[in-house]
Amino acid sequence: MTLRNAPENPTSDQIAEMASRCEDVSRYFTNKFTVVSPVRRVNVDLRHGALRKLDSPTAKSE
């Protein structure tokens, strides 16, 4: 696929294939991005009553 017959909105896989063939894919990127900090997971053991208190506001809003 050349830039001339490239689809208007190619999928990420199609862009990756084009880049692998050293084709210019810069027009598909805006250089506007948001930095997202990584998620940190923590395991916490809670008693049933504490878990119920945490779940109750969520259950009411759904």
Describe the structure.
The chain has a domain at 1-33. The longest helix has 14 residues, at 48-61. 37% of the residues lie in helices and 0% in strands. It is rod-shaped, with a radius of gyration of 23 Å. By secondary structure, the chain is mainly α. The chain contains two helices and no strands. The protein has helices at residues 12-20, 48-61.
Alpha-beta content class = mainly alpha
Average per-residue pLDDT, rounded, comes to 82
Output the radius of gyration.
23 Å
Q: Biggest sheet, in brief?
A: none
Strand percentage: under 5%
The coarse silhouette is rod-shaped
Stretches with pLDDT under 50, minimum 5 residues: none
Separate helix tally = 2
Query: How many DSSP E strands?
Result: 0
> How much helical structure, as a percent, in the residues?
25-40%
Outline of the structure:
The chain has 2 helices and no strands. The chain is mainly alpha-helical.
List keywords for this structure.
62 residues, mainly alpha
What are the SSEs and their pairings?
Layout: H1 12-20, H2 48-61
